[in-house]
Amino acid sequence: MKLPAILKNVGSYNGISAVQRNANRGNTHGISLQSDIEACVRTGNLDGNPVDHCYIRLIGNNGSIEDSISFGPDETGNPDKRPNRPNACHLVRKNISPASWQKIKSYYREHCGTKEFEFRKHDCCTCTASALNTIGERAPAFVTKANPTT
Fold first, then answer.
1. pLDDT average per 10 residues of sequence, the chain (150 residues)
2. Listed residue (86, 28, 30) closest to 57, CA to CA
3. Are residues 1 and 21 in contact, defined by beta-carbon separation less than 8 angstroms?
């Protein structure tokens, strides 16, 4: 970004002007600066049986869903098919950094999608919990207790 000479040294901090800092804030991988992440669950269907489906969604500062990520037999690290239809959601972290959101998405793609979907062992809820662990967060109980073995 080329700045007019008069602005180049105004409010400089570590060699970066206030104008440049504000311009750099726009590079956020498509998420708002004050986005929050939620772990969510909804009732789904697997081979004709009701199951819990877990996913993570990104909520913008205006309350809208900016992105989501999910894992299942037919989706591997893609946005969830119905992120606006949860049975329950739990706020996991406020003001998530773009780097942390990218870390979650990378985990889904590199670890969840590279293994065969196995209900109750390597499924959407175990992946949600593990992805949250990569950024130092714990999954809410409804995620860790989803789809119990009978």
1. 36 36 42 85 84 93 92 80 94 94 93 77 87 95 79
2. 86
3. no
